[in-house]
Specification:
- With 115 residues, the protein is mainly beta.
- 0% of the residues lie in helices and 57% in strands.
- The protein has no helices and eleven strands.
- The chain has strands at 2-7, 10-12, 18-26, 33-39, 46-52, 57-59, 67-72, 77-82, 91-99, 102-105, 109-113.
- The radius of gyration is 13 Å and the shape is globular.
- It starts with a strand and ends with a strand.
- The mean pLDDT is 95.
Length: 115
Amino acid sequence: QVQLVESGGGLVQPGESLRLSCVASGTIFTFNAMGWYRQAPGKQRELVAVMTSGGVTNYADSVKGRFTIASDAAKRSVYLQMNSLKPEDTAVYYCNAVSVGKPYWGQGTQVTVSS
């Protein structure tokens, strides 16, 4: 079993920054990839950013240049630095980890960008 616990969400004004963290615990010690997805009200869940175990990253076009993903394999953690936040970034952000093709999800953390 794997548990993913996110933290760092909150309410911020446009242009401000937030840093999300996700820590994995359980019986799986390495992941093929870890990343972040988000789901806004009435919309489908979408990829925000992902990093493979080899360090390859992929970002949604809407966040390129503003968000940065980082991971710490030893701590089984993944982070998302979000700068220059916009109201359209408002969503529940979910941590995702993949091991041998099987995805695991966190419970989600709310990010609200509003003036």
